[in-house]
Amino acid sequence: DSGVTQTPKHLITATGQRVTLRCSPRSGDLSVYWYQQSLDQGLQFLIQYYNGEERAKGNILERFSAQQFPDLHSELNLSSLELGDSALYFCASSVVWGSGEAFFGQGTRLTVV
Amino acid sequence: LAKTTQPISMDSYEGQEVNITCSHNNIATNDYITWYQQFPSQGPRFIIQGYKTKVTNEVASLFIPADRKSSTLSLPRVSLSDTAVYYCLVGDITGNTPLVFGKGTRLSVIA
Question: Looking at the partner chain, which of A43, A96, A107 has a beta carbon nearest the beta carbon of B94?
């Protein structure tokens, strides 16, 4: 158990809909990262937050947005969903906002039908 | 952000030592080298991190030559359960460097 909690574990929704994925980082970790991993694809970095502020952005679509709340949990909002958005979405947390040791959650498997 | 290059895939028999090399020619002075392991449908797991020379833990060893332009992850006596994708990352652990993963090396351990 990495200490990072992601909910829900599975999500099935229709095209055009909007969903929210939630991540609770390890206790004490200030940095949160979001990743997307499609079938047999690598981990695509989406966005990083540190202590409530956005620190880095990767290949995140305009239809996607995220935020980190004062209690440090984070949410990833995906809207106007398309079939191609079906993927595993991982959240990770770390103490520092650099490339140190990060701990990953078990992921949320999103299926868009 | 230093670019990394790893072999796409490797095969090994059980019980052998596996060495996965990562090239990072543009590594910066403050950059550390970190390796992660990922099993199917699971989040990556931190394996080892180093700056120079050799680092060893209960799972693996990391060899970094003096010029730091490459590194080698060594897995001793692999078993079937070591079949996974291994990622090499390079970045400044004290700075604003996001964790960006490349395509990794898919290791297949054969009985």
Answer: A96
